[in-house]
TrEMBL record:
This is FAD-dependent oxidoreductase. The lineage of its organism: Bacteria, Bacillati, Cyanobacteriota, Cyanophyceae, Pseudanabaenales. It comes from the Bacteria. It is an enzyme of class 1 (oxidoreductase). The keyword Oxidoreductase applies. GO terms for molecular function: oxidoreductase activity. PANTHER family: FAD-DEPENDENT OXIDOREDUCTASE DOMAIN-CONTAINING PROTEIN 1 (PTHR13847:SF287), SARCOSINE DEHYDROGENASE-RELATED (PTHR13847). Its EC number is 1.-.-.-. Residues 3-356 form the FAD dependent oxidoreductase domain.
Length: 398
């Protein structure tokens, strides 16, 4: 019997497994796929440590970037961490002051660049297709490298990994006793669900309600190319964030349990990043579909992504690439769900991260210390139970 079972081996699950094992717990990580799937395989890997807008999120951003800067050394394997410029582009029609107001509370204020200055910073930009850009100091990692480095370190510490699909949770009265998988049953004192978007489906099958939602994200990956991007490029008016914020109020929560619904029209945020091997990922198209396995017309989506990226980074639109898609989890207040659920006090969530690369390393470390009995001033604020009416005021985050 293990102290902890962690379900899901992406960026959240492997980080939490490593920190728990490092803290002296015995950990069994259960992951369905031997090849990395989901948001951890298709995310951009940007670390937006400038983006904290409250005391809590700014503290987590500071802790997160500090951890990321040190992880390659600590883990003994390169996560491909690097400092990089982030350019958030405006369209020619955007009102600069309105856009800037969206970033007024950020820990680090942006620098506005006019179209000419933007192109000087990133020559691949289309000067006629933008109204300028907001410049932020940023950082970046390769997500598969991050996962691989943690996995290697986790195993060296004695952590165990099983590749199997979790069928359901095992209960014993008012407590969880373990999980049932295709390879049999596994017992533990605690279970942490780090399955991203699929966390909702797994928990629902076991009678546990969770305020986790998801978008279907789509992007295009190229092979290594001669073309060079100097900066990470994203739109300043991010449609995905708006889309997420408009789909998850408490009154409409039940609709997420009805498969086959499209809650909002799809949106595209034209952005791109180049990796150390010179491959490029560009996209991103987002859909709000309640069916996690919904069929998507790949050719139609790819054409739509290329049409949008052509306005901002025209040379990228012509590059050969492979269309890919995954689910991206989020919560109704854009903060992760971290802690025990009300149904079982030894069943924990560690999911719903809109900004996993900045928050996950810091919160994994905090979670592990909290599991040892150390007091923490942030973990309770992120409790999955914060959405309960009785607790809402007590869990206000500021």
């Amino acid at each position: 019997m293990h102290d902890w079972i962690v379900i899901g081996g992406g960026i959240t699950g492997i980080s939490l497994s490593y920190e728990l094992q490092k803290s002296g717990f015995s950990v069994l990580l259960i992951e369905q796929h031997q090849q990395l799937q989901g948001g951890s395989s298709l995310g951009y890997g940007g670390i937006s440590y400038w983006s904290g807008t409250t005391t809590v999120t700014q503290q987590l951003c500071q802790e997160g970037i500090a951890r990321q800067r040190n992880l390659s050394h600590e883990l003994g394997m390169d996560t491909e961490f690097r400092e990089i410029d982030l350019l958030l582009t405006l369209t020619p029609e955007d009102d600069r002051q309105v856009i800037l107001s969206q970033y007024k509370d950020c820990a680090i204020a942006p620098t506005f660049l006019n179209p000419q200055e933007s192109v000087e910073r990133e020559p691949q930009l289309n000067k006629q297709g933008i109204g300028g850009a907001l410049l932020f100091p940023h950082a970046h990692i390769n997500l598969p490298s991050f996962v691989k480095a943690h996995s290697q370190a986790f195993q060296k510490l004695g952590g165990e990994t099983v590749y199997a699909k979790v069928k359901h949770l095992l209960t014993d009265g008012d407590r969880l006793s373990g999980v049932s998988t295709e390879q049999g049953e596994f017992r533990s004192a605690h279970v942490a669900v780090c399955a991203g978007a699929m966390s909702r489906i797994l928990l629902k099958a076991s009678g546990v309600n969770s305020r986790i939602y998801y978008t279907h994200a789509e992007a295009i990956d190229t092979e290594p190319v001669d073309l060079e991007l100097r900066a990470m490029v994203m739109p300043a008016d991010n449609k995905r964030n708006v889309l997420e914020g408009s789909t998850a109020d408490a009154d409409s929560d039940a609709i997420w349990d009805v498969f086959g619904r499209e809650l909002l029209p799809p949106s595209i945020d034209a952005g791109a990043v180049q990796y150390n091997d010179r491959s490029i990922r560009f996209g991103q198209l987002s859909r709000v579909l309640t069916d996690p396995h919904a069929a998507i017309d790949a050719a139609q989506s790819e054409a739509a992504i290329r049409a949008e990226i052509a306005k901002v980074l025209p040379q990228l639109a012509e590059l050969k690439g492979k269309w890919r898609n995954c689910l991206v989890a989020f919560s109704s207040d854009n903060l992760p769900l971290v802690g025990s659920v009300k149904e079982y006090d030894n069943l924990h969530l560690f999911s719903g991260f809109t900004s996993p690369t900045v928050y996950v390393p810091a919160l994994s470390q905090r979670f592990a210390a909290h599991a040892q009995g150390k007091a923490d001033d942030i973990i309770p604020l992120l409790s999955p139970q914060r959405f309960d009416t009785k607790l809402r005021n007590g869990y206000a985050i500021s």
